Amino acid sequence: MSPCEPLPVSRTELDSSEISQVALEDFDVTGNGFLPQDQPLNVLPDSYYEPWERLAKDLPLLLQEQTLRSRVDRLPVLSINHLKTEAEWRRAYVVLGFLTHGYVWGGDKAAEILPPSISVPLLAVSNHLSIPPVATYAAVNLWNFRSSSSDFSDLDSLTALHTYTGTPDESWFYMVSVAMESLGGRALIPLLLSSLQSCSAKNSPSLISSLSEITARINEVGVLLDRMDEHCDPSVFYHRIRPFLAGSKNMASAGLPRGVFYDEGNGKGEWRQLRGGSNGQSSMIQLMDVVLGVEHKVTGDSNPDRPGHGDGGKEMSFHQEVRAYMPEGHRRFLAHVEERWPGGLRRGVEGLLEGTAREEERIGLREAFKAATDALAGFRNRHLRIVTRYIVIPSRQGGVGQGKATKLNLATASSKLAKTEEKEGSVNAELTGTGGTALLPFLKQSRDETFRAGELRR
């Protein structure tokens, strides 16, 4: 199927226009994009789960007092049979994900064994949702908010349901992503799909208009990202919040050389190395890549650790690998768009340029497409600037706000590495992200690949 073949007709309408689209509800895509249509549950309705809820509510205090592990160790293994709706399954996943990372990282050194009281129900809930048993982007962002407004892009109305630190900094850090997801879902998804429709109809003026709107909306999402500084202090983030977001993949220097053993009791269990939550798991960002035709390499710094493998042993890029950490419907949606329109708008626009006789139209298409890809690359540049302020600079400043000097976690390991490289005259090229990648090389290459997408071959 060509990248510009007409969109399939279905029962769901994109808007009041004549544009037909895929049935978004079949992929758990809502009017808020990849966020739920309604606010997530803030408590499991069945009192049977009160032991989980109590620990989640008291999590910041328990971590501060370093009593979470002893409390979890005394926790009974609760059955998942009382979970009924998908909202309840998601709520259980959020609670258990936070308790997991709190248990692993909530001491002077990382806990390598996760006890059955968390492992058993978390594995079952994760299996039901088809998402890894770890605190993913979905757990800490998509399903972890409340709002005093029906507009989830209103950042000032949002609050995180759960945090590790109890600080407004941590809540704000998560809610910036929630607001961006909501704005992107409401404004960008319709535009991205309508741009494919315009391409399929060989309607260059309509496509140019859609691309111009896409550029404007990406920039609006970037403005939300720029608000991070308002209520999130870099030192608080780096030393107090970020360590809890780390996964167990590539975390040997932080105390998890083998990952985490998920103890299922009775001699059963498995060592797992899983990525922590990161913005790389945002389906919104990947959808923009897919529609615009941004290609991310399998080899090189975009995937500095050993590549993952898909069916048949084929190597995957980091971007492909982390789709497994997205909600199941969302990753199906990305695969659906990718399969129906291989190469996305980049290939489609190149085809239109070849068949368009009017020079004015060709120039307009080139400029509009380049502006859209530049806007996405610019968004990634904004992210790089935040990474510099919130990770690179604090890593060089040492233990301010770090608490006990003997603690070993992602922050202390990264700071030690930064100081070593500084003495050797190198740069922080190997600082590790919470998702387990070499942070700066990955982000820079993703940005550069986005810029290159705007360099059309025709």
Please characterize this protein's 3D structure.
This protein has 458 residues and is mainly α. 51% of the residues lie in helices and 5% in strands. The strands form three sheets. It has a three-stranded mixed sheet with strand order 1-4-5. The chain has a two-stranded antiparallel sheet with strand order 2-3. A two-stranded antiparallel ribbon has the order 6-7. Helix 7 (168-200) runs parallel beside helix 10 (283-292), helix 7 packs parallel to helix 13 (344-355) and helix 10 (283-292) packs parallel to helix 12. The longest helix is centred in the C-terminal third of the chain and has 39 residues, at 359-397. The chain is globular and about 75 Å long. Residues 1-21, 299-309 and 400-404 have low confidence and may be disordered.
Helix-strand layout with pairing:
Blueprint: H1 50-57, H2 59-65, H3 68-73, H4 86-105, E1 113-114, H5 116-129, H6 137-142, E2 145-147, E3 158-160, H7 168-200, H8 204-225, H9 234-245, E4 260-265, E5 268-272, H10 283-292, E6 308-309, E7 315-316, H11 318-321, H12 328-340, H13 344-355, H14 359-397, H15 410-423, H16 439-453
Parallel strand pairs: 1-4
Antiparallel strand pairs: 2-3, 4-5, 6-7
List keywords for this structure.
single chain; 458 residues; mainly alpha; two-stranded antiparallel sheet; globular; disordered N terminus
| Main β-sheet, spatial strand arrangement | 1-4-5
Number of strands: 7
Low-confidence runs: 1-21, 299-309, 400-404
Distance between the termini: 21 Å
Rough shape? Answer: globular
Q: Rg to the nearest angstrom?
A: 22 Å
Strand content: 5-15%
GO cellular component, one term: cytoplasm
Family: Belongs to the indoleamine 2,3-dioxygenase family.
Pfam families: IDO
Organism: Podospora fimiseda
